[in-house]
Amino acid sequence: MRRVSIVLPDEVYQLLEEAARRTGIANRSRLISDAVAGYYSSSVDKEGFYAGALVVFYDHSRGETAYAVVDAQHGFADVIRSNVHMHVSEEKCVEVLAVAGRGERVLGLIASLRKVSGVISVQHSLVRVG
Question: What is the CATH architecture of 49-128?
Fold first, then answer.
């Protein structure tokens, strides 16, 4: 572990204090460490190997959206390890995909899902494992 000093603008410092209050984590070093790790894990490079989850939020009442989401997944069976489907309303669904694979393939899956008409958002939480 290394000790570093940082200078934060007042506004960012206030956000740090608010995060500590909301999370109950008084250790600012831990909060900053988690934030940096989260920032790093949100960027995916093509060469790395990643594992984690994709969350696909979509409107299944819009034509063939549900079929297109499933079809997009079939092209990435080598990356998708598991999935869970949830109905969040009469029109909206959430699909959670457990994924593991090369960054290039994971990025391809994300791009493929984002192209589907009716998909509202695709978010990811990935960690580099190799």
Answer: 2-Layer Sandwich (3.30)
